[in-house]
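Entry for the shared binder. Reason: the reviewer on the internal report wants the predicted structure included alongside the sequence.
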Amino acid sequence: MPGQRKRKHRQEAARQRLTARTAPDTGRWEVLLETWDEAEFRDRLRSLRAARIDESLIRIDTLCGRLLQPTTYRLSRFVAGPDGRTG
């Protein structure tokens, strides 16, 4: 397909930039919310988006539950290290 190679290179470069920005030596992931309630999780995510937070620095974890343990939703934000840099 025309342009596929260019698009793949562009996507790979974007992935590498994000990986460099969120490397362990540049900061840490701070948990903003951990809940079993999906509606509460979606409301908090919606409020973050309304606040114009950089979505590339938000991590969403869905810890799948089983019979004895319900599904847990975790929302984390990347916080820059003590020197204030993010990449």
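Summary line for the report: The CA atoms of residues 13 and 19 lie 10 Å apart.
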